[in-house]
Amino acid sequence: MKAGIFYNANYKDANRENIRSIYSAFGGEGNDCKTVSSPEELDGLDVLFVLGGDGTILTVAADCGVRGVKIIGVNYGHMGFLTEFGPDELDKAVKLVAGGGFAVEKRSMLKIVCQGKEYYALNDLVIQRSTSGAHFSNTVNLHAEIDGVTVDNFSADGVIVSTPTGSTAYSLSAGGPVIAPELEAFILTPVCAHSLHSKPVVFSDRSVLTVKPVNCKTPLVIAVDGKIIGKIHSTDTVKVTKADKAVEFITSGDKNFFNRLLIKLNIWGK
């Protein structure tokens, strides 16, 4: 088994001993284990240890998903919705992977097509108003269709398209529902809608969602898993479907989503 290690570069010194422990378990650096700092370095790996919080995992999750690289997360962040192990459980995580006695949980991804380019998201796609410079805008108008049928014409700060994994992230903060990871559904959530009838919509992940700006005087910002990827205009259409591949997380096989949810939300509320 070939393993990689990805960590937040800001905490390299804090993770130095952790990295050595992982190297040791897989035969030393340069053998069947290496640190990873770019998507291309994921090629050929079987598993990636991610040392950090949810943001660190989101940095590499989609790239791992399209390459079939399994992720095992060790939480050194705050929330840790996506991490299986706590900071004091690294040895347990290493032994689980090295021994091969682990379970795999698959999480669906969004496939986003815009301006001729494809993007993948584990959590969400956000289309929102610009909040800086000459392109500052107040509200935006967005026309949304599911399988060619109009869902709503949103007048809002923007919209979020979320997977079940992302339902506990930005979408939840904007009033969207929590969806269990195994459900085959996505969520369309307006952000600060200027109409009382505009509410979150849960729809089948087998459907095709299109979102198009209407009478857009300034460019809108589009972000994938928290990273701004560009701007769109009234001439652009954003198409969202379920990706063919999923992100695979290594687990010990004994976790319960709702127990975990309750614990994490209580931490969030403090």
Explain what you see.
The chain has helices at residues 12-25, 54-67, 90-99, 170-173, 257-268, and strands at 3-7, 33-35, 47-52, 70-75, 103-107, 110-114, 117-121, 124-128, 140-146, 149-156, 158-162, 185-191, 201-204, 209-213, 220-224, 227-232, 238-242, 247-251. The protein is an alpha+beta fold and 270 residues long. It has a six-stranded antiparallel β-sheet with strand order 7-6-17-14-9-10. Helix 1 runs parallel beside helix 3 (90-99). The model has no long low-confidence stretch (mean pLDDT 89).
Question: Top keywords for this entry?
Answer:
270 residues; Rossmann fold; Tumour Suppressor Smad4; 2 domains; 6-stranded antiparallel β-sheet; 20% helix; 36% strand
Q: What would you say the CATH architecture of the largest domain is?
A: Sandwich
* Beta-strand fraction estimate: 35-45%
Class derived from helix and strand content: alpha+beta
| CATH C-level category of the largest domain | Mainly Beta
Overall mean pLDDT: 89
- The Cα radius of gyration reads 20 Å
Q: How many domains, as an integer?
A: 2
CATH H level of the largest domain: which superfamily? Probable inorganic polyphosphate/atp-NAD kinase, domain 2
What overall form do the CA principal axes indicate?
Answer: elongated
Helix content: 10-25%
Which stretches are low in confidence, meaning pLDDT under 50 for 5 or more residues running? none
Say how many strands there are: 18
First and last CA, distance: 40 Å
Across the major sheet, the strand order is 7-6-17-14-9-10
| Largest beta-sheet details | 6 strands, antiparallel
CATH topology of the largest domain: Tumour Suppressor Smad4
* SSE sequence, one letter per element: EHEEHEHEEEEEEEHEEEEEEEH
